Amino acid sequence: MLEVADVVTSYGKIEALKGVTLSAAEGRITCLLGPNGAGKTTLMYSIAGILKPRRGSIRLKGEEILGRAPDRIVASGVALVPENRLIFPQMTVRENLAAGAYLRRDSAGIGQDVEQLFERFPLLRGRASQLGGTLSGGEQQMLAVARALMSRPRLLLMDEPSLGLAPLVVEEIFRIIAELNRDGTTILLVEQNAHMALKVSHRFYLMEQGRVSFGGTPGQLAEDEVIQRAYLGSRR
Amino acid sequence: MSLLVDFVQTTLDGSMAGSAYALLALGFTLMFGVMRRLNLSFGAALMLGAYVAAWLHLNAGLGALPVAILTVAVATLAGVYIERLCFAPLRGRDAVASLVSSFAVWMQLEELATLMLPRHTNAFPGLMDGDPLLIGPFQLRPDQLAMLAIAVALMAVVWLGLRRTRAGLALRVLADQPGAAIAVGIDIRTTALLTFAVASALGGLAAFLILAGDRQVTPMFGMWATMKGLIAMMLGGLGSLPGAVAGGLLLGVIEAHAQLRLGPQARDLIAYGLLFVCLVWRPGGLFGQTLVDTEATARARL
Predict the structure, then answer these.
(1) What residues in A contact B169, CB-CB < 8 Å?
(2) Between B188-214 and B166-176, two packed helices, what is the crossing angle to 10 degrees?
(3) Which residues of A touch B177 (CB under 8 A)?
(4) Neighbours of B2 (CB within 10 A)
(5) Taking the CB of the first residue and of the last residue of chain A, which one, N or C, has fewer CB atoms within 10 A?
(6) Most A-contacting residue of B176, B188, B294 (CB-CB within 10 A), to test interface
């Protein structure tokens, strides 16, 4: 589904991604682990077109999307659930969902999708006309996921969905991720919670200092080793 | 009894002037809400529109309607020019950068206008003539009534446009959470440009209504419009649409009362005083439910 090859992204003179290569297979959950500052969020923003990589190639189903404007990338089927959720705080839950469908023109289909998402996230239905900013952290995360799904993505990018949530809510979020995937959504997931992430993922990559240092299936590396490297980086 | 009649009459007069302030504030607040940037040359853009129209009024005898259309059109173009020059290249940079460059463009537009019409006072066509309407003991000027009606209609159009149209959704989303606006596929370049165009068109119409009431335009109009719009917006609350309307009306009414009790010199003094009191006592403005507050509420609930 997604092929990232040799992507270099920099902030001014600082290279945050120093040639990243990885892929996310269709219908699978691919997870990206690594310490803070490894470049995970930079990679997400590069795929979404919000940051412009200096070099490399990003292909979606064989089609080059690197260099496209962010709205064109959303239109080609990539949706981002951003870090810190970034829901629209002064707009109602329903309006948040409508915003997620901004590029779509089929109002009937949009209405159906809102209904379907309310089935999936009953908590949101109860809060449909409440402002996004008044939701709890977990509800906001669900809203951010639902908003991203409103664009009917082929690939869902999720940037640290468990950040700052209570353990029970984290479990709920991971249950939702697994469920979305079971229904056919391809997911690329960035996580700090290595334990939970390894449980749901089919494949994972370790990122350290702007490079991919390991790629494989969960179980290929002992969880202790993964956690050690995901939080602290590899020992030199 | 006559004290009460005076009071109501002054309040009526003030709210009609205030409806024009409200339109100016609405323009400011749209731009501020979407970009979180102050456009100091807003008034200058409106003044340029009025000057081009006044020039054609003088030289080609243009009537009120074409003057209105021209004022709005030129103000809109000037707004687009300002956005492209001072705001688009500085997106994501320090707010002071675009503030200062918009100040420079203010000077530029003002020079341009005064080169075109060097006299201090220039004739501007009136909206309509006619004796004041008498309703009970109260007098209402028909042109002022028309101004109020047009202003209210415009506010309704803006309100509905923001809620019912796709472009309105883009504007609100960008105002609410720019980081996520890109993620849902909103093109920031076009939306920002559109915001400036709409704000300047609104301002252009407000400028026409105000100047048609005065029957003249001077080079001070740009400064005046920026000041009134800014004060009204800050009274109401930065980036809040109902706040802009309330702030504009409040400013108009208080100014009218100040003028009646303390004389015309006190009018502006009171306006600045009001701004000062507001900033000290309630820095967020009347409707100052700012983004910061919502973020804090959201965090407290985590």
Answers:
(1) 95, 98-99, 102
(2) 100
(3) 86-89
(4) 8
(5) C
(6) B176
**CB-CB contact of A104 with A151 (8 Å):** yes
Distance of alpha carbon B208 from alpha carbon B188, whole angstroms: 30
Q: Which residues of B touch A87 (CB under 8 A)?
A: 177, 180
Task: Report CB contact under 8 Å: A148, B291.
Answer: no
- CATH code: domain A2-84+154-232 is 3.40.50.300
Contact A41, A208 (CB under 8 A): no
Nearest chain B residue to A147, by CA:
B184
- In chain B, the residue whose alpha carbon lies closest to the alpha carbon of A73 is B185
Cβ atoms A197, A191 nearer than 8 A: yes
* Per-residue tens of pLDDT for chain B, all 302 residues: 688 888 999 999 999 999 999 999 999 999 988 888 889 999 999 999 999 999 999 999 888 999 999 999 999 999 999 999 999 888 877 788 889 999 999 999 999 999 999 999 999 998 877 788 888 888 888 888 888 999 999 999 999 999 999 999 999 999 888 889 999 999 999 999 999 999 999 999 999 999 998 899 999 999 999 999 999 999 998 888 889 999 999 999 999 999 998 988 888 888 889 888 888 888 778 876 554 454 454 444 43
Task: Please tell me which of the candidates A91, A133, A147 has its beta carbon nearest to residue B297.
Answer: A133
Burial of B145 (0-12, 13-18, 19+ CB in 10 A): middle
Find all residues with CB under 8 Å of B83, minimum gap 6, and list them: B192, B193, B195, B196, B197
Which positions in chain A touch B187 (Cβ < 8 Å)?
A: 69, 71
Q: Give the separation between CA B289 and CA B283, rounded to whole angstroms.
A: 11
CA A69 from chain centre, in angstroms, equals 18
Label the pairing between strands A78-81 and A155-159: parallel
Of B176, B294, B302, the CB nearest to A164: B302
Nearest CA in chain B to A76: B185
Token look-up 């709920």 returns A172
**What is the model's pTM?**
0.88
Give which of A90, A96, A142, A162 to mutate to test B binding, by max B Cβ within 10 Å: A90
- Is B298 within 8 Å of chain A by CB? yes
C-beta atoms of B184 and A50 within 8 A: no
Residue entry with tokens 């009937």: A108
Q: Residue A120 carries which side chain, given as an amino acid letter?
A: R
* B80, two tokens: 């687009």
- CB contact under 8 Å between A102 and B184, yes or no, is yes
Of the partner residues A80, A102, A140, the one whose CB lies closest to the CB of residue B186: A102
Chain B CB contacts of A50 below 8 Å: 182-183
Sheet holding A78-81, edge to edge: A78-81, A155-159, A186-191, A29-33, A203-208, A211-216
Distance CA B232, CA B23 (A): 10
Cα gap B50→A48, rounded to integer Å:
44
